[in-house]
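Why do we bother with a discrete structure alphabet at all? Because it lets us treat a fold like text: something you can write down, compare, and reason about line by line. To make this less abstract, here is a complete entry for Histidine triad domain protein. Read it the way you would read a sentence in a foreign language you are learning: slowly, and without expecting to understand everything at once.
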Amino acid sequence: MDCLFCKIVAGEIPSDKLYEDDVCYAFKDIDPQAPVHFLVVPKAHITGADQITEDNAPTVGRIFAVIARLTQQLGCGGDYRVVTNCGKLAGQTVGHLHFHVLAGRSLAWPPG
């Protein structure tokens, strides 16, 4: 498969890993938009949020539990934003479900 995030999970492309288990993988964003900016991806290839089903929904729950743990470990104090884009018009550039976690500064709304 020619998926950037699948290659990162497989170790074919280096990343600054923060966390890994049998369900998901978390790593620092290479172009951070906040002092804390990391991504969490499922290890299973799910193309986007529109492909979340009853069968794979527990994966998303696990990812959010990991996000809560990592933001606590990173000292975010419960102040963070989780973003997932679905489709090109929404800004999704990699066809693999992923969640951006941003913290460490005031985050404006709407995001733009």
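What the structure line is telling us, in plain words: The chain is about 20% helix and 20% strand. Residues 7 and 13 are 6 Å apart (CA to CA).
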